[in-house]
Write a structure and sequence with these properties.
about 10% strand; single chain; 5-stranded mixed β-sheet; alpha/beta; about 230 residues; 11 helices
């Protein structure tokens, strides 16, 4: 029980200490700790992790120790759908370690059957308590969708983002030159993706309806590192 409480306290950033948590105080998630974690606690852990990231007080982890601890099993508390953007790595911006989160990444952070199946595995089979759709500012994929870019397989991928473009009402410039419009589309895309998960995955919707998991949207500001939540 002490081990479970220690893992949750550190993960949620509730130690009350302003300095960086030492490696010895961090416990890699195990099955018992994951089972004891609620969706709200998982969300709090990610929020606290982002606060540590922004402040520069990230946990000093022994990554090889975590490799050994997770070598025969993983018990993540969250699954994160994010963009492939090099500035938006979820494990980094949420200050999470090895074995803490599942990460599904695709340009434009949308979902298809493959990602939905991955999320169903993460929550139903592997016990993840939270699903986060993480968009970010200045997203190249969003800009490409706004500009109707045509380029090989990218064309088909951007078509999956265009419904978000169409959903945004704007009488001004609707191209990537309009930063405000691009950001409105990015936000609409996150919200549409969250809704798509509910609509297209009866498995995850049922779990959310029962309170077993939460599905939320978020936006990373790549200029500040701050994550806002929807």
């Amino acid at each position: 029980m002490k081990k479970i409480l220690a893992a949750l306290v550190v993960a949620a950033g509730l130690t009350g200490c302003a300095s960086v948590a030492p490696s010895s105080s961090y416990t890699t998630m195990d099955k018992a700790a994951q089972s004891a974690t609620t969706a709200d606690a998982a969300l709090a852990a990610l929020k606290a992790g982002n606060a540590r990231f922004v402040s520069g007080n990230m946990i000093k982890r022994d990554l090889m120790k975590q490799v050994k601890a997770t070598g025969y099993g993983q018990y993540p508390i969250a699954s994160i759908v994010s963009c492939i953007d090099s500035r938006a790595g979820p494990e980094i911006v949420f200050d999470q370690g090895i074995g803490d989160v599942f990460s599904a990444r695709v340009a434009g952070n949308f979902v298809n059957e493959d990602i939905l199946g991955s999320l169903e595995f993460g929550s139903k089979a592997a016990g993840s308590k939270l699903i986060v759709v993480l968009g970010h500012t200045s997203c190249g994929a969003i800009k490409g969708a706004c500009d109707d870019v045509v380029l090989g397989n990218l064309t088909g991928m951007l078509a999956k983002i265009k419904p978000a473009v169409s959903s945004v009402s704007s009488t001004g410039d609707r191209s990537s030159k309009n930063d405000a419009f691009v950001q409105m589309v990015a936000e609409a895309n996150v919200k549409r993706t969250v809704n798509d998960i509910f609509v297209r995955s009866p498995v995850l919707k049922a779990m959310a309806d029962k309170g077993e998991i939460k599905i939320v949207g978020a936006m990373l500001d790549v200029k500040t590192g701050v994550v806002s939540w929807y």
